[in-house]
Amino acid sequence: xxxxxxxxxILLEFDPETKNLLPALKKVSAVFGYVSQGxxxxxxxxxxxxxxxxxxxxxxxxxxxxxxxPALVIQVCSGTHCALNDSFRIISEIENALKIKAGDDFNPKxxxxxxxxxxxxxxxxxxxxxxxxxxxxxxxGIHEILEGWI
Amino acid sequence: xxxxxNLKIITEHWGKINxxxxxxxxxxxxxxxxxxxxxxxxxxxxxxxxxxSGLVGRGGAGFSTGEKxxxxxxxxxxxxxxxxxxxxxxxxxxxxxxxxxxxxxxLEGIIISALAIDAKKAYIYINGRYIKQREILEKAVLExxxxxxxxxxxINSHYDLEIExxxxxxxxxxGEETALINSIEGKRGEPKFRPPYPTExxxxxxxxxxNNAETVSNIPWIIINGGKKYSEIGSAVSPGTKLYVLGGAxxxxxxxxxxxxxxxGAVIDKLGGGLKKGKELWFSQIGGSSGRLVLENELDNSLxxxxxxxxxxxxxxxxxxxxxSDIYDFLLSIAGFFRRESCGKCVPCREGTFRLYxxxxxxxxxxxxxxxxxxxxxxxxxxxxxxxxxxxxxxxxAFLDAVEKLKILDL
Lengths: 150, 411
Description:
The complex is a heterodimer. Chain A is of the alpha+beta class.
């Protein structure tokens, strides 16, 4: 069964108070992958705020996306624990294998992001592929993980 | 050091009780502190006990908790309490461990703190990445409410309290209390100019008390055992126990509780079990990514929250680097972190962290020029002295030490 969710329905879960703006933006971004301009306008109307005010908040937070994300998003942790366990070699392995550069968003199909600590330091390096968390990743083991997604 | 070396306040029941069952916590004496607070104490007396205990904020700044409470308490009208669980300092996961192992201890602390300052509403501001921890807390709040510890007429008294969990959305700076408040108000999580302090003008312009989750977790013990007893634990300047988060080349990584005032060497040897076999100590970083670097000859420094102490305890993270650690990986890790997390409000921090990262990349690739070396000193000075909030200073701390103590520019 395909479960359809509309922006309007999501917004109704929240009272139109400004303290719910950030949670509502997060939810819309999580459900649709990003907050489109149309959605931002609906949110502005719902909360009775100027559109610029919605974007002001939305553009600040990492978890709220304002552009459609590529089909494949790879995130590698570079907190101290992970970094000293070879995060940066894993990053360059991915860069070479997929011919992309960490931090760029030119490629419409795939994106590689360097992220900060998730608090799972004991199990690092941590790699997240489309939301799925891989622990204790190695520079050689990353290829096997990538194969499952390309 | 004293005989109370092995005293556990926060970690006492970890691993022994089911964190998802309130009954387990009550069976080991949980929620007794609330009973004592409601039945036998006036809020003023509780605040007096906290002041007497000498408890200071565990988030890193080390401000006296009792004084903060008093500052909010003396204001009239609507007030808020916020528990700061926006833990995002790399290498620090003590608050996460508290929620994972004993969420009701934290809740009990929150309830007492909020009631003591006459707040009717408390928020838990939790790191947006802590999804599992949010679920644990949600369940704990429901259970506590059905046992009448939260809601209207707490254990049939005149006290009311509502607790709401608010998830962050991925911004380190929201751990700073004014930025955190902005974030709940649906604004950009940028820090505000202080004064006015949140204790006067906080959430929605009302007096607001913001306390770190670890600080809050100490409250039930102090209420039960008294402030005087707490003040005898650990170092005299910032008494109590502290959660140390160990990592790197130590034998035991993880979260450990020990008294404040331990020397760095004792933390590594006693809590961390010394270095892993075959590893040789190079330096360690104390207090997360924004912490100082210490060499072997400084291991005798004791760790306290004293403003004057050379090596502040910070978040309590202790990361040990051995002689084979790649210093450039480390520097790139922290430079990258501060570049990503700089909020962009002020130029010195926004540009400084960005340029520092660029130079570090060149350093890692072995392409650093004489001009870069000069620029590093300039950037570090600017970060250290001219930024709007302490974030810029944080970004410079470890790097400055790396330049001065590890002589990275001469390598």
